[in-house]
Amino acid sequence: MRGQLLGDTVFLMNANAGYESVAIGIIKLDKTPISVTTYILNDNLQQNGIYDNSPQVNDIFKTDSSRVGVLIITTLDKTNRIIAGNFYFKAYNPVQNKVVNITNGIFRLNYTIN
Prior knowledge:
Elements: E1 2-6, E2 10-17, E3 20-27, E4 38-41, E5 47-52, E6 60-62, E7 69-77, E8 82-93, E9 98-113
Parallel strand pairs: 1-9
Antiparallel strand pairs: 1-2, 2-3, 3-5, 4-7, 5-6, 7-8, 8-9
């Protein structure tokens, strides 16, 4: 797993297991800092979830307006650069016309600052 905080307004998380990966991105256009709170993952390019299960481009599933999810940040320790929380989401692949359910996602990781 990898986490990045870009400034105070962007959080990017990526987890891989071989070709299988889950990515979540939060971009705060209003410039308020990322905080301990709940974020809705949907078709908004600033708050979404992605699941990819192979190196092929037609295997990418993304949240959209009807397949949504939640990212809950429960810990944001800026002194020790630790972020923790949980997430779940549904994601859709229009090429395959399939939906995946990502459930019980939990993370606690050191993050880098760029």
